[in-house]
Amino acid sequence: MKLLHAADLHIDSPLRGLASYEGSPAEELRTASRRALENLVALATSESVDAVLFAGDVYDGDWPDYQTGLFFARQMSLLREAGIPAYLVYGNHDAQNRMTRRLRLPDNVRVLETEGPETIRDEDLGLAVHGQGFGHRDVTDNLALAYPDPCAGLFNVGLLHTALTGREGHDTYAPCTVEHLTGKGYDYWALGHVHTREIVARDPWIVFPGNLQGRHARETGPKGCTIVTVDDLRVTSAEHRDLDVARWEHLEVDVTAAADADAAVDLVAERLRDLEHTGGERLRAVRVSLTGHSGAHLRLWREQQRLVNEVRALANDFGDVWVEKVRIGTRPADATVEGAAGLLADLRRTAAELRADDDAFRRLVSETSLLSGPLPNEARGPGRVDPADPEWLRRIGDEAVGLLESMISEVREG
């Protein structure tokens, strides 16, 4: 048999703040999750899969109206016309949705229970699907412990929305260990919740397919589903298939050799040129980070707006590429001016001591007059102003110290 395993569709996931970017392909990105699901249905049909497995988070929280659910139902009807059943467990985002249980799906879609584990058998196909969905968002129980014994003579799939023992960036919902899963005796565990593809184990197969479509700059690289081929009740292959229509990329460009902003742009152009030969015909949404110890560090900061817009203009020459953001993560070249070394050493030591106390540093940043006042909603959140995010705090601290170092060096040289 052949199965298609997908998870974390997050249909109509909101892409906040895109409209604030000049020239952003907001409409293409806004509809990307729908187009990716259409690609899934087309793949399932062309590959003549025997069943589709959805491991949670089909939706993305509460719908503003029924259109999101109706779109999913229409796509499932296309699977029904092709004679393909679908098995689904609700994840934490699905459980948020007040309308999820009110919308009737086509009869080829089997939604597994949320009150306890359920087994659905297809004797003709030789398949048994075991699973339990989320009845509410914050499921902290180990659901896998109560999953039933495998069905003899059938290919047994465990369908589960979980972070296992934890994955960076994901809440540890329905926690369990690999040993808990392997101990069940199933042939394949179809997991969801973690947005990065991961083959956790191969005996038995335990797989996160990743999400169907990257939603922001932290979800980079190819996204899609896993095609599972089974022969004689054993997995013979579990292959990733790309389904995304817009791909997020993060280019880190070392500009150590750049003497000025123009030279830095030339180095970025070399990396953007490489994108022409990857990713196919899909849109590429790119975040560019400039790195390295550069003598142009302070000039890059001072000419930041020109730099950003030159890179965006440059991207027009490289196909369907949109530059989402240009981050300056450079550091100044080592100071050689007499008298600067001691001052810089004091600055670095003070900064290190402050950042060693995470709580104190967070309070300092959060209580600055700029951040304590009202900020537009689009300025806050992941990837933007987020004092609660340790990664954001580290980056802000590093950038501030680097800028001060450059300014000190420039003054000493002057």
Question: Could you characterize the architecture of this molecule?
Answer:
The protein has 414 residues and is α/β, with parallel strands linked by helices. It contains twelve helices and 17 strands. The protein has helices spanning 26-30, 32-46, 67-81, 92-96, 178-182, 261-275, 297-302, 304-315, 340-356, 358-366, 369-372, 390-413, and strands spanning 2-6, 51-54, 86-88, 109-111, 118-122, 127-131, 155-161, 188-192, 198-202, 205-208, 224-231, 234-242, 246-254, 283-291, 293-294, 321-328, 331-332. It has a six-stranded mixed sheet, with helices on one face. A six-stranded mixed sheet has the order 5-6-7-8-10-9, with no helix packed on it. The N and C termini lie far apart (74 Å). The mean pLDDT is 85.
Quick structural summary:
With 414 residues, the chain is an alpha/beta fold. The protein has 12 helices and 17 strands.
Provide key terms for this protein.
414 residues; alpha/beta; six-stranded mixed sheet; 32% helix; elongated
Helix content range of the residues, please?
25-40%
Per DSSP E runs of 2 or more residues, the count of β-strands stands at 17
The dominant shape is elongated
Residue windows where pLDDT falls under 50 for at least 5 positions: none
* Main pleated sheet: 6 strands, mixed
Rg over alpha carbons? 25 Å
Beta-strand portion reads 15-25%
Topology (elements, then pairings):
Elements: E1 2-6, H1 26-30, H2 32-46, E2 51-54, H3 67-81, E3 86-88, H4 92-96, E4 109-111, E5 118-122, E6 127-131, E7 155-161, H5 178-182, E8 188-192, E9 198-202, E10 205-208, E11 224-231, E12 234-242, E13 246-254, H6 261-275, E14 283-291, E15 293-294, H7 297-302, H8 304-315, E16 321-328, E17 331-332, H9 340-356, H10 358-366, H11 369-372, H12 390-413
Parallel strand pairs: 1-2, 2-3, 3-4, 6-7, 7-8, 8-10, 13-14, 14-16, 15-17
Antiparallel strand pairs: 1-11, 5-6, 9-10, 11-12
Helix pairs in contact: 2-3, 6-8, 9-12
